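Annotated sample (chain length 426).
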Amino acid sequence: MKRIWSWIFAALTVLNVALPVWAQKEIPKVEPVKLADLLAEAFHNNPQIQAVKQEWQSMQQMPTQVSTLPDPQVVLQQVNVGSPRPFAGFTNSDFAYIGLGVSQDFPYPGKLKLRRELANKDAEVTEQKIEVIRRAVLSELKMAYFRIAFLAKQSSILNDDRELLQQMEQATEVKYRSGMGNQQEVLQAQLEQTKLLREGTANQLETAKLQAELKQLLGRPQSSPDIVTEEIGESLIARNYEELSSAAQANNPQISAALKAVDRQNIAIEIAKKDFYPDFNAQFMWQRTDPSQFRAYYQFTVGARIPIYRKKKQQPELAQAEIDKSRAQTELDSQSLEVSSVLRQEYVAAEKSAELLRIYRDGLLPQAKAELQAGFAAYESNRQDFQALLASFLDVLKLDEEYWQTLSEHETALGQIEELTGVSLR
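Output written by the structure step:
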């Protein structure tokens, strides 16, 4: 029974028939969600952000590992004389003994400290990666939010224009029945009604896709209720391009990550230089023969690992580290230029879209609506034909949609600027 009533309600909605009061109470009202609330939710729940956070936490465990001395080695020896049996000849030969020793490797002074610094830089690069992913996810969320808000406004515009078109259709029918119009005008009005229904269906399809994308960014299940956005308004650009450019160079996480990668390679070069020096090993050995006849032996040994294959190992290692530093510096320069280029494009887009919004708001839309009102009155009094009235109607519909589309693009451009600079513009 509930399903039947839901079909009836849907049919009445499509036919633009008002639902009875008791039926309207059955439909729960969904409150709009603020963009700031969704951004906070995405930061805590988005799987991409959580994954890179966990990667950073993992990298933080590395510095102590690489800066700690290698594990010592413990050695147990037994030397027999005359027989492979354990302790054979132990009491009658000073060549048979039991030995217990320990050895420890010591890297050349400074190597462990440099390795710790290198691991710390790797963790810092990963930390910047968190900010890169965070800003990218929040930027995608803003774009989806603004697009859904535009589609919601477009749906409202289509509903209002459908009502206006119904009035036009009724006027054509009245004139047709009175013999002052023709059937083609009625059919044209009906055709435009069908086109609006098609556009409304396309609107719903795109909205459904964006809702799925938005839920994925928020880490919500796809079966959760759809998100209702607030009506978007125009945000002003409170800073000039020079200020935003300076903020981008100072705060952009991709530039920061590239800069830290250069620092990392400087440390790698220092490690490669340290590898030209030997590492050391210290060993202590205690040996025991028959305590009733022989005294114990104590042996202390110091060894060194000499890097004699420098041309094949240490020199190529140093050359590789220097090449990697040059590559990191080039990537830093490239990243800086790319951020500047994208920022310039988005700033110009935001600036020009703001100008377009003023043109729509102060000129095109009022003029088109005034022309439509005058044309409707003229058509009803037989001073204008239906084609001119229909053209005026389509102009209003197109300009209204273009205004909100431009507003959505303006807010999206500001969202991109916020991602690049880390500066809040709202």
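Annotation: The chain has two domains: 1-28, 31-69+107-275+313-421.
Annotation: The CA atoms of residues 107 and 279 lie 5 Å apart.
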